[in-house]
Amino acid sequence: VEPEISVRAMEAGGAGRGEELRQALRKLTDTVDDPGSDQYMREHSAFHWALIEPAVTPVSRRVVDQLWQMSERYIRLTVASPEHRRTYAQHHEPLVAAMESGDAELMRAEMIRHLSEAEEIVLRRRGATG
């Protein structure tokens, strides 16, 4: 869902919102050393909302909200270990660059990559814990 909404957001003017997105990214990065905190989760959510906001409808807001609520524990897993924390935080920068590029295929590909990398981290951590 998020890759397609992010493409629509880019096409609806998101490409011109680079400074706003970079500010949201800075706030997220500032909280990365305390990833278990509610503040980290708020900033992570705010960053992703900032990416997709130009294309959000009431229906997509409800869908994305529900998906994010269901996946919060997995997002927390992606940053639970120090070795993944900084890496995962750096995965957000290409999303901003893709949005600024105005290239729909790049935006879609970067969002899919971002979500896939988060999934891989969760699966590795899950495998490590049994």
Brief overview, please?
The chain has 130 residues and is mainly α. The chain has helices at 2-11, 18-30, 38-52, 58-78, 82-90, 93-101, 104-129.
Task: Describe the overall structure.
With 130 residues, the protein is mostly helical. It contains seven helices and no strands. It has helices spanning 2-11, 18-30, 38-52, 58-78, 82-90, 93-101, 104-129. α1 (2-11) packs antiparallel against α7 (104-129) and α6 runs antiparallel to α7. The radius of gyration is 14 Å and the shape is globular. The relative contact order is 0.18. The mean pLDDT is 88.
Which key features would you list for this structure?
0% strand, mainly alpha, globular, single chain, 130 residues
> Biggest β-sheet, characterized?
none
Note the overall shape.
globular
Number of helices: 7
The percent range for strand residues is under 5%
Roughly what percent helix? Answer: over 70%
Quote the distance from N terminus to C terminus.
30 Å
Report the mean per-residue pLDDT as an integer. 88
Report the strand count.
0
Radius of gyration: 14 Å
List the helices and strands and how they pair.
Layout: H1 2-11, H2 18-30, H3 38-52, H4 58-78, H5 82-90, H6 93-101, H7 104-129
